[in-house]
Write a structure and sequence with these properties.
The protein folds into two domains: 233 residues, 3-Layer(aba) Sandwich (Aspartate Aminotransferase, domain 2); 127 residues, Aspartate Aminotransferase, domain 1. It contains 15 helices and 17 strands. β7 and β8 form a beta hairpin. The relative contact order is 0.15. It binds pyridoxal-5'-phosphate (PLP). Pyridoxal-5'-phosphate binds next to α5.
Amino acid sequence: MVAATGFGAALWDSILQSLPSEASRVLELVRRHNRWRRFETVNLIASENVMSPLAESAYLNDMMHRYAEGKPFKRYYQGTGFVDEVEVAVSELLGELLGGARVDPRPVSGTTANASVFRVIVPCGGRALIAPVQAGAHVSHTKYGTLGALCIEQLEMPYDDYNMNIDVDRAVKMIEDARPQLVVLGASVYLFPHPVKEIAEAAHSVGARLVYDAAHVLGLIVGGRWRNPLSHGADVMTASTHKTFPGPQGGIIASRDEDLFKKIGRAVFPYFVSNHHLHRLPALAITAVEMKYFGEAYAEQVTRNAKALAEALAAEGFRVIGEHLGYTRSHQVLVDVSGHGGGAKAALLLEKANIIVNKNLLPSDPPDAIKNPSGLRIGVQEMTRFGMREGEMREIAAFMRRVVIDGEDPARVASEVREFRRSYTRVKFTFDVNTVIDSRLLLLE
Ligand SMILES: *Cc1c(COP(=O)(O)O)cnc(C)c1O
């Protein structure tokens, strides 16, 4: 067992010693995970983030033990008065951040949000058009995921290689010919915004609904750095609350169409959630308030950092995707490492060097290259939260070059990365609350 260091070490060791080994082993694993991921590694997974200490404190609360089925103030259980008020506050805060919208925060994940929305818009046996897999569609948009589970047929819109996006003209034609009930935009891997306005017009002309899945970009939308799909014709927006939006893991549904919103609400419960993990609601509310005050500065720095990292990686000799389009407008950077053994090998080496990324299919990869795709998907949002800026992006690019291109021993780079990370362990873009009671024992440094 690794001994704890720093503040809290003595307390920690005495707790471990007083417990049966089965329990102390688990606690020690959590402690080691926490220390590694929060103090020693550079996390560049594009779908992750961290809450502020204030939001984490709000997350640990008694609501995690309760039920509140139904809608606020119309529950099936007693004892939910405070939960009701928090849930209403969450909906109002998020609705305000989205420029006016009804918001349902009950889906426990983005996938659950999608399931609830798709279920209401498309009858079983109906048809949906989705972004092509090259344009980054999520598994929940496909026949292998949520659409498949709901017996909805899936057709992919055409892709434009040069613009790395949906081919608008051919997609409009396809919508007119295929006459789906649903069109889905938004993605897990994308550098440039999907064409919401044009696709919305085509969808509406055949009576279809446009759903924009903002799982990755919710934080950029509320920070004003990504088009708000609800203002450009999307009927519904779904999202995860823990990717660029730095809240607890969960999902939301937002819409300005009152009637549709109500119908979807009647599918969330009872079709897809019973209890909706109530303890995340106060943390989500706190994060929404943080985004109200700091969201613009955060989203601005995220997009600057993504561009800076792309440029720095290119300068270090990496093949960075999308140079002719300015690399990226999102929080993501895509790198082609097929010349260095492929994405699987590069991601493993980088993990040994304490840099966490995931291997990913590139638009040019065949779909069956999933085990060893050409690319790495990199997201800068979490490191931006910890205060890294353009200069730090250049340092990260140099670490990556040493591991992936130069073939340097990753263990040696790992100790330098650990040293580098030590200066960036406090979450920025939050309120400076010195009196937050640190009940998060397992996060003591
Ligand atoms: C991550 C993601 C989801 C699913 O989110 P969960 O909250 O993990 O269920 C849905 N859609 C897209 C586009 C995503 O990237």
